[in-house]
Backbone:
């Protein structure tokens, strides 16, 4: 009996001890959990702060592309001119920063580092407003001219190394400073109307100011009709030609025979020149463009793109100080699976339809050019495109002393381009 | 155009391209074909189920399915890194323009399933239905307390998707009518994360695919305050009475051919559409 009581007491003591130890362990665990919870809350708060700080980076988008190029131009060797027909160079090194914190506004700044210079390509603020199915955008700053198809078509996507000759002549630089209002029914129609300085970013004379009071006006309408897109564009502006100040007449004597006597043959008289006032000329461009897409071949999509330009501008060499140019291109493009694509383009440009250039001591010089271009692309991966292109320009008309017409100078161009796009 | 050397060079180049193209086609024909699907997180479980079932029947085909959001999938389609883009919203005109530039094609859209975009509430939440105007006011931050819409006096906690998500775009276009989400909306990476957050938060509200609504309650949606509220059921979606129904799409760069065409046909077949229903979405036919 006594032994049983002692055993029961021993077991009870043991149980109480274990319970006390378990209680102690539970309390200890609770403390650990509480400490961990506090630490976790602290980490959570830090994470929220970090998310808030880093969240702003979500609005920033960096894009761009680099075109490293080898170019060989076929020329007649010899003579005194330096032979620079074979070159490696950077054609375009673009980087664009876009900051869009919401759906109501956007900031864009876009640089180009190529050849030996860094330049500002685009810098604008864009405001958006949506009203039912209508999207409105107001773009203010340095931006693309809202004209035609080629200008807005990125050089990183184009099949050929350069845009058409007509575009290069009439819209050199593709960009200008101004304001542009876009109204879009996104799936079907888009209208643009803008007011611009008119000189473009590549103009050497007027780098940032516009000597004409009136702004140049551009309007464009574009319709999307399923597999076909159509566009019409117009441009109405002025160009100022700087005048010159009056020059007083002068009389100078040079004592040619050293006898100290002024003789009639030693006197030189320069007549006075009257001041020439600055003058303004109309600058107009019109364009129509169409793109059609076909999905008939098993290797991928096919596209036909065409555009017609007509415009007049001041010409220092035209007899009536105005030259009217016209041009068009016809561009076929074929996707060949996921890795390849091929394209061909015929590009016509006549810089002076009326043929009244009088420069180069040639009369009625009128060098219309027709350029056939071929290109093949290999898509190395999602970022790299390798392009081989071959341009074959021909002079179609030459009203000068050159007897051959069409005349084909030795100026074909081969381009091998490696492009990385981010 | 007088340059026989350069002309020969170009001829050689074209020959190399043609040969490489033919070799590529030949290699693909000889080995296993890999098809990639990328895009909508909403469609991820559906894409995975289709892939598993199709690969079981076609051992020579490997299908890789990844999410990231409809926007990510469309970007991948444009840069050529996926064969098929899964999207829970329609492709945007600007994205079509990019496809035209890269692939000379506006792309091909194939509706593969239907979905009712669910509005998730916590199971303890007494609110049972909302109209479209209320939903917009909640997500634009005009209504911030549940008591304003017949619930308890508690702050509404908003959960939403990231802006690369098609569900985000659909909700923004069709509920917010293009307006911005309230700044206090907590963005979460995927519908599963939203469902999880609302399931744990009695004051939470979220949105996403109907197939994910486990552990949360679907809210009835009314077109306006006078109309009847409907749940995102197959019957209501087919009848067009549920205001937030949408198609789920596959996008391709051009008309499908070969193995991709077979996969598309499978997804649209009776078996493929049965999988749609099993996953929790609704068949297109």
Residues:
């Amino acid at each position: 009996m006594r032994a049983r009581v002692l055993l029961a007491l021993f077991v009870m003591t043991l149980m109480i001890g274990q319970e006390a130890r378990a209680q102690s362990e539970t309390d200890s665990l609770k403390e650990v959990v509480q400490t961990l919870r506090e630490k976790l809350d602290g980490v959570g708060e830090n994470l929220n702060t970090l998310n808030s700080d880093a969240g702003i980076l979500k609005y920033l988008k960096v894009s761009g592309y680099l075109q490293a190029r080898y170019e060989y131009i076929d020329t007649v060797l010899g003579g005194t001119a330096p032979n620079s027909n074979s070159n490696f160079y950077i054609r375009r090194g673009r980087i664009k920063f876009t900051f869009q914190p919401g759906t109501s506004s956007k900031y864009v700044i876009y640089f180009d580092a190529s050849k030996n210079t860094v330049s500002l390509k685009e810098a604008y603020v864009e405001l958006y407003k949506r009203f039912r199915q209508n999207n409105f955008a107001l773009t203010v700053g340095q931006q693309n001219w809202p004209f035609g198809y080629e200008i807005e078509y990125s050089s990183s996507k184009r099949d050929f190394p350069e845009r058409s000759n007509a575009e290069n002549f009439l819209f050199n630089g593709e960009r200008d400073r101004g304001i542009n209002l876009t109204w879009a029914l996104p799936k079907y129609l888009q209208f643009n109307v803008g007011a611009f300085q008119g000189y473009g970013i590549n103009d050497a004379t007027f780098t940032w100011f516009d000597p004409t009071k009136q702004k140049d006006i551009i309007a464009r309408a574009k319709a999307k009709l399923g597999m076909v897109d159509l566009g019409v564009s117009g441009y109405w502006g002025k160009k100022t030609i700087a005048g010159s100040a009056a020059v007083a007449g002068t009389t100078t004597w040079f004592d040619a025979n050293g006898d100290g006597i002024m003789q009639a043959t030693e006197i030189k008289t320069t007549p006075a020149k009257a001041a020439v006032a600055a003058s303004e000329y109309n600058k107009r461009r019109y364009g129509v463009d169409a793109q059609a897409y076909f999905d008939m071949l098993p290797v991928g999509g096919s596209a036909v793109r065409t555009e017609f330009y007509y415009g007049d501008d001041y010409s220092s060499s035209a007899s009536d100080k105005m030259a009217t140019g016209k041009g068009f291109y016809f561009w076929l493009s074929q996707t060949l699976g996921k890795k390849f694509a091929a394209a061909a383009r015929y590009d016509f440009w006549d810089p002076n339809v009326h043929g009244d250039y009088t420069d180069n001591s040639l009369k009625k010089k009128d060098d219309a050019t027709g350029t056939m271009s071929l290109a093949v692309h290999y898509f190395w991966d999602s970022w790299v495109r390798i392009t081989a292109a071959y341009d074959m320009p021909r002079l179609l008309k030459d009203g000068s002393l050159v007897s051959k017409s069409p005349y084909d100078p030795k100026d074909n161009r081969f381009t091998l381009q490696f492009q990385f796009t981010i | 155009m007088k340059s026989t050397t350069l002309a020969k060079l170009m001829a050689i180049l074209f020959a190399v391209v043609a040969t490489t193209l033919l070799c590529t086609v030949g290699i693909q024909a000889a080995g296993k074909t890999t098809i990639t699907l990328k895009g909508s997180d909403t469609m991820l479980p559906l894409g995975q189920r289709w892939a598993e079932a199709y690969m079981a029947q076609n051992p020579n085909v490997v299908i890789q399915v990844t999410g990231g959001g409809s926007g990510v999938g469309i970007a991948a389609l444009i840069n050529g890194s996926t064969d098929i883009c899964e999207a829970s919203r329609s492709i945007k005109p600007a994205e079509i323009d990019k496809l035209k530039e890269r692939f000379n094609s506006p792309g091909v859209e194939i509706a593969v399933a239907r979905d009712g975009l669910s509005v998730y509430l916590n199971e303890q939440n007494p609110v049972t239905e909302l109209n479209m105007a209320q939903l917009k006011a909640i997500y634009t931050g005009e209504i911030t307390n549940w008591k304003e819409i017949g619930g308890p006096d508690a702050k509404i906690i908003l959960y939403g998707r990231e802006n690369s998500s098609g569900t985000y775009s659909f909700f923004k276009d069709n509920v917010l009518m293009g307006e911005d989400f309230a700044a206090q909306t907590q963005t979460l990476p995927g519908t599963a994360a939203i469902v999880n957050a609302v399931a744990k938060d009695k004051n939470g509200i979220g949105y996403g695919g109907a197939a994910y609504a486990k552990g949360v309650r679907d809210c009835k949606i009314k077109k306006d305050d006078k109309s009847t509220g409907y749940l995102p059921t197959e019957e209501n979606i087919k009848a067009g009475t549920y205001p937030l129904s949408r198609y789920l799409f596959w996008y391709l760069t051009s008309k499908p051919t070969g193995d991709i065409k077979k996969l598309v046909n499978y997804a649209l077949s009776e078996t493929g559409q049965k999988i749609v229903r099993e996953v929790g979405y609704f068949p297109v036919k």
